[in-house]
Amino acid sequence: MKEKDFYDNIANWDFSKIDYETQKLTDWDMYEEISRYTDENSLCLDLGTGGGEKVLSKYPKVGMIIATDFSQEMINTAKSNLKGRKKIKFAKMDNLKIDFPNEIFNLVSARHTIINAKEIYRVLEKGGIVVIQGVDKEDCIELKDTFKRGQAYNDEKAISQIDYEDLINNGFEIVKSVNIEENEYFKTKEDLLALLFKTPILDDFSEINCNHEKRYIESELLEKYIKDNMTERGIILKRRLYGIVAKKK
Fold first, then answer.
1. Which residues touch 215 (CB under 8 Å, ≥6 apart)?
2. What is d(CA 3, CA 110) in angstroms, rounded to the nearest whole number?
3. Spans of all domains in the chain
4. Predicted model pTM
5. CB of 109 within 8 A of CB of 128?
6. The dihedral of CA 93, 94, 98, 104: what is its sign?
7. How do beta strands 64-69 and 43-47 pair?
8. Which residues face 91 on adjacent strands?
9. Which of the listed CATH numbers 2.120.10.30, 3.30.70.920, 3.40.50.150, 3.30.530.80 matches domain 2-248?
10. pLDDT, averaged in runs of 10, over the chain (249 residues)
């Protein structure tokens, strides 16, 4: 419920106004993988779609996309972003209980969200594909070490390993599993703050002041991180993600 409240308050997943650049260190792209296993007739389910920004801009041309999120505010944002486009529908849904019949989707995608491999297996056709990209335990580890907390910081087992085992245990064949390394460079402190306000990388990072404005706390720790991680390209944030492609047997 705390995570749901967080995303309801954010209401969108648009990072276009943040001035940063990404240095890809791993040759893997989620949407290129999706394109390998789909065509113009494919029926796809996108889980954890947020405000629909990625599915609208990155998804390959397919027959139909049903994109879902557990936050109604995110879905409201996604519908406003739709702007009359056809072949895509947005709906509120819990990833852990997929509200669709058995074996109807050709492909299921899940980006930066929790999964239920048993439910995904149920709604995929035989031979269907699931493509996952997630945030791993070591993501932004220098930042988390500075604040001594953060997303998955104290988890005993990495989310990538949990997802991998969940897929195997529910009958999937792993086609590909990859550790993804990227560096992000933020132009200014304000750009880095904008990311941290929009994401759960750090727990309880902000608060609302008496003027109903969001402000960050623990400024000394943030200044320390910036000082230690300033480069010629900007403030570096080392992203550590994972990608999995699996096939229903």
1. 206, 207, 208, 209
2. 17
3. 2-248
4. 0.89
5. no
6. positive
7. parallel
8. 68
9. 3.40.50.150
10. 49 73 97 98 96 94 96 92 90 94 98 96 98 96 95 93 97 97 97 89 68 68 96 98 97
